[in-house]
Amino acid sequence: MRAGGSDPIREAAGLLAEHRNAVVLTGAGISVASGIPSFRGAQGMWAKYDPMEYATLHAFMQSPRKVWEMLSEMLSVCGDAAPNAAHKGLAALEEIGVVRAVITQNVDGLHQAAGFRRVIEYHGNMEELICVFCWKRYRTRERWTQGTVPLCDCGEILKPNVVLFGEPIPWLAQEQAEEEARTCGVLLVVGTSAQVSPACDIPRIAKESGAAVVEINPEETSLSGNVTDVHLRGSASEVLWQLLKELSPGDEASPRTPSGH
Ligand code: NAD
Ligand code: ZN
Q: Does the CB atom of residue 32 touch ligand 1 within 6 A?
């Protein structure tokens, strides 16, 4: 934790203004205000579905119909969700040239829905289904309806094209994420507990390459107090809106400045 900065928002805004090539790493916390529960915590998905029973490739291969109970819930929750002020705030930061990319662990597509352009989907997304036997892919909305289990033309049960525990990160996303982490001046870490590997290595890679790490999270995480330079404690929407105000003082700089935070 960086000492001395009396106002952490101003300190973070100063870093962002100085470098203007920030990269953002987001996690489930940024989408909580859109009605998508995170995985950890009392309201989290894991309170209902044990990840070892529902979120591993092994579990999917053993009992795909059971895993689809959790996947169906996730798909319908994501299908109903819209981007919140935090997603819009990040898109506005990209628009004004402060942020250049977002690496997201989320699979909900809400950064793109908010208009963010350079999104690296580290864990895939729910919009596509894939057959783990013949690798054929389908649009989820063309193959799946609530209450059914989608089948491939080859007869096997399809899997959303997301990374379950035990699966590798998509090669291109991993390459791009590491490159962004190595070359950014500031890494903004928003709404992740940084416990899922290898995504949790991204802040360390950025830090070791000389970037400042700014964390937005109401709670302490494994990064706080060591990797994190500036910890902005608060909800993502509230803090990002404050940062935007600092970075575009008194103005109409961005037509997409978020509201309703
Ligand atoms: P996590 O559930 O482990 O941690 C969420 C973090 O967000 C916590 O540290 C919490 O304090 C913080 N948080 C909660 N509300 C917040 C808010 N309003 N503003 C800022 N921070 C807030 O999530 P994770 O680290 O992303 O790991 C979970 C894994 O599960 C990820 O890999 C992700 O792929 C997946 N996941 C995705 C979604 C989604 O796509 N929306 C939802 C749940 C889980
Ligand atoms: Zn198939």
A: yes
Handedness of CA 152, 158, 62, 64 (dihedral sign): negative
Give the number of other Cβ atoms within 10 Å of residue 89's Cβ: 29
Half-sphere exposure of 112 (CA within 13 A, CB side): 10
pLDDT of residue 260: 43
Per-residue confidence band for 248, with pLDDT thresholds at 50, 70 and 90: confident
87 is catalytic: no
Residues 136, 76 share a domain? yes
pLDDT at 114: 98
Pocket mutation for ligand 1, best pick of 192, 216, 228 (most atoms within 8 Å of C-beta): 192
133 and 236 within one domain: no
Q: Whose CA is nearest to atom 17 of ligand 1?
A: 235
Structural domain boundaries, residue 21: 1-35+84-123+169-249
Interatomic CA distance for residues 206 and 210, integer angstroms: 6
The one catalytic residue among 19, 58, 111, 123: 123
Residue 163 CA, ligand 2 centroid: distance in Å: 18
Report the distance separating Cα 191 and Cα 68, nearest Å: 26
CA of 160 from ligand 2 middle (Å) equals 13
Q: What is residue 259's predicted lDDT score, i.e. its pLDDT?
A: 47
Which residue lies with its CA nearest to atom 35 of ligand 1? 106
| Per-residue model confidence as pLDDT tens digits over 118-161 | 999 999 999 999 999 999 999 999 999 999 999 999 999 999 99
Respond yes or no on whether the N-terminal peptide bond of residue 255 is cis (omega within 30° of 0). no
Overall pTM surpassing 0.90 (yes/no): yes
Q: Write the pLDDT tens digit of every residue in 51-71.
A: 889 999 999 999 999 999 999
